[in-house]
């Protein structure tokens, strides 16, 4: 399943400037999702991070990965209309900077679930080169 930005907004509660997924390229509800974020110099964070050398903040890359994983969870029939909250980040590794002009390719696979709590294994790449890896914990809010 592919989703454009309008369809993503029907699933996620995030809006500009905090919607960080431009397109979902594949999704298996409840199991995994892949998406892209086209990084632009016009984004708010680049006013201060850093004015003379733009680098996308790592926490925003983690948020983009979490939003990608949230799409996988929220496309499950029983979770439609709910919100997925961050529960934690483990083993985050930042391997390369992400800068304007990059297309951030994100994948999140749900590897464990117990009730409303789960864990996603996430990776973000640029041109096939790993930028960030992390284990993301989430909680589905009823």
Briefly summarize what is shown.
This protein has helices at 5-11, 58-74, and strands at residues 23-28, 32-38, 83-94, 103-114, 117-126, 129-141. With 142 residues, it is an alpha+beta fold. It has one domain (5-141): Hotdog Thioesterase (Thiol Ester Dehydrase, Chain A).
Mean of residue pLDDT values: 97
Structural class: alpha+beta
Q: Over the alpha carbons, how many angstroms does the gyration radius reach?
A: 14 Å
Share of residues in strands? 35-45%
User: What is the CATH superfamily label?
Assistant: Hotdog Thioesterase
Question: Largest sheet at a glance?
Answer: 6 strands, antiparallel
Whole-number tally of structural domains: 1
The number of strands is: 6
The CATH architecture designation is Roll
User: According to CATH, what is the topology?
Assistant: Thiol Ester Dehydrase, Chain A
CATH class bucket? Alpha Beta
The separation of the N and C termini measures: 25 Å
Shape: globular
Query: Element order, helices and strands?
Result: HEEHEEEE
Helix content: 10-25%
Quick tags:
single chain; 142 residues; alpha+beta; Thiol Ester Dehydrase, Chain A; six-stranded antiparallel beta sheet; 2 helices; 6 strands; globular
Describe the 3D structure.
By secondary structure, this protein is of the alpha+beta class. It has a single domain (5-141), classed as Thiol Ester Dehydrase, Chain A. Helices cover 17% and strands 42% of the residues. It contains 2 helices and 6 strands. The chain has a 6-stranded antiparallel sheet, with helices on one face. It is globular, with a radius of gyration of 14 Å. The two termini are 25 Å apart. The mean pLDDT is 97.
